[in-house]
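Retro notes (design track)

What went well: tokenization of the new backbones is finally stable.
What didn't: we kept losing track of which sequence belonged to which structure.
Fix going forward: every design gets posted as structure first, then sequence, in one message. First example under the new rule, 207 residues:
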């Protein structure tokens, strides 16, 4: 949660912490004057910027026409922390699918092929675990629901099982697709699957 790219995403999309707080974000006025942007959830103001007296004077004088904030990147920093998070999400997602099935959770807990990813997710055991990252739609894309309402999709998740028996956890956060192999430290099978399926997302197999 402290990674700079996650903080940037949380600020732009107004994602609070467990205590209901939004992270601040540093930016620049168009003349290079620095400022800090804040967001609020329990105020009449949705947010404000804090800058120097010189910056305020320039704004009041009409010398500033715009401001710049960093945009959420299309790739996450700290690959090991990110891949451990994706491994945890994959395991928990698989568990949610197996709840209610006879011996389903027992299979997930005891199946040897998942031992490496379990150990990596919990303890960071072994070398890094690669994952695939790409944008499949704009973060602010509007989706039309059946009742006609426009909504923004925050997250989507599914499991892809390839023709070769590989299991991939596929997560999309605000349109950023993150895929990790649940069986081994390799993403080559997913790249091959994308090539054979015209780069469509497993989350949208009909397109």
């Amino acid at each position: 949660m402290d990674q700079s790219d996650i903080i940037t995403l949380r600020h732009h999309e107004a994602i609070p912490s467990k205590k209901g707080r939004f992270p601040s974000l540093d930016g620049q006025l168009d003349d290079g004057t620095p400022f800090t942007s804040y967001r609020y959830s329990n105020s009449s103001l949705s947010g404000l910027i804090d800058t120097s007296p010189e910056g305020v004077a320039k704004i009041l004088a009409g010398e500033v026409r715009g401001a710049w904030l960093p945009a959420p990147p299309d790739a996450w920093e700290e690959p090991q922390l990110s891949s451990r998070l994706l491994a945890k999400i994959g395991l928990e997602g698989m568990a949610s699918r197996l709840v209610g099935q006879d011996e389903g959770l027992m299979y997930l807990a005891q199946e040897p092929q998942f031992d490496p990813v379990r150990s990596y997710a919990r303890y960071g055991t072994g070398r890094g675990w690669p994952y695939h990252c790409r944008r499949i739609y704009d973060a602010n894309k509007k989706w039309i629901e059946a009742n006609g309402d426009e909504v923004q999709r925050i997250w989507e998740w599914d499991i892809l099982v390839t023709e070769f028996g590989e299991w991939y956890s596929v997560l999309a956060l605000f349109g950023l697709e993150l895929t990790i192999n649940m069986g081994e430290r390799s993403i080559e099978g997913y790249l091959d699957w994308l090539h054979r399926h015209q780069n469509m997302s497993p989350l949208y197999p009909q397109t």
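Added context from the reviewer: The longest strand covers residues 155-161.
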